[in-house]
Records
---
Amino acid sequence: MTGRALTIEQVLTLLAGTPPRIAALTDGLTPVQLRAAPEPDEWSANGVLAHLRSCADVWGDCIRTILDEDRPTIRAVDPRTWIRHTDYPDLEFRPSFHAFATQRTELLTILEPLTPDDWARAASLTGAGAPLERTVLSFAQRLARHERTHVRQIDRTVNPVREAATVIPGTSASPAG
């Protein structure tokens, strides 16, 4: 899938797979572990989830606007700016994840029955240089690709935390197994 446009089926599969993948990666971790960043300038799993929620808000709203209006003009919003208007970074992981998963179910309920013509519906995106034409499909592709990258980031973030939790106190080795 790398380097090529994602098909509608691939987009739907990736978007549907994100919540269960995050759930599996974070299963059994404590709130403290979910807020642990691997390095000082890196995001914790909680930080990545906050970012994903912000992206889902911004790009999901664009998708809904394109479907609700005929060729709308949408002002570009950077999810990193939008997140400052939310409490996502401060929320505990589990309730925030539940909200993310619920929002994803709602988005998929909108996307799954779309016709090819619906996926091709377009908007003019302004505020980031020359106006750009973006479609429902292009926003959904962007969301799916972006999430795929950040799910891998969560995996890299929680693995050291999970490994550190399995180390036997007073040793540098993990339990036999």
Note: The beta strands are 73-75, 122-126, 132-135.
---
Amino acid sequence: MSPMNKPQYSTRVIVGDLNPVFEECTALLVDPNAPKVKERVSLQVWDSDRFTGDDLVGHVEIDLLGTNIQLEDSHD
């Protein structure tokens, strides 16, 4: 979620498949100072319901301090 509690990225909904395969990739822009302030990346999996509310299936939080982040220089 963004600082304003909005999803930063969302996959498409696959209908009629109990074992969907998404085969999607994404990149996250991470501030170089994020690991120093103990920021985390939160991933959530939700189901999609037509007539009732969506349900949280699972989630994981990744501590950026323990990851191998490669910083890229954005200046040309």
Note: The chain has no helices and two strands.
---
Amino acid sequence: MDVDGAAAALAEQLVIDETRDVVHWRGSGGEPEVTGLHDYRALYAVPGLYEAVYLVRLGMRSPQLLAQVLALVCPPVRRAQLQVLDVGAGTGCVGAALSTAGFRRVAGTDLYQPASPRSAATVAPSTPAPAGST
């Protein structure tokens, strides 16, 4: 999974304390911050923080693995036509992986409002299905 430069730079300064389930980092003003590893609202509120923690530092690969499994059972022609709804999309990691695997009609949504706009922007744009394909 590709991460942007901001997430990669942020990942370098993180200190993850897995025994306490927290991540220590410096806020935009340089002030020390502590966020729970599972406090998704807080992680999504800071651009790149979720990606820095989970994709870069913890090496999460579930978005790519899910996309690989779906690609195995769905032929390339069908991938472009299939409509995928990612509920709980977070920052759109799964949608981006599905897009890379050839799925073109992906939409994401999340209950946490700071995450929703990014997930919608990260996933592949919806394109109309050919007539009679759904």
Note: The first strand starts at residue 15 and ends at 17.
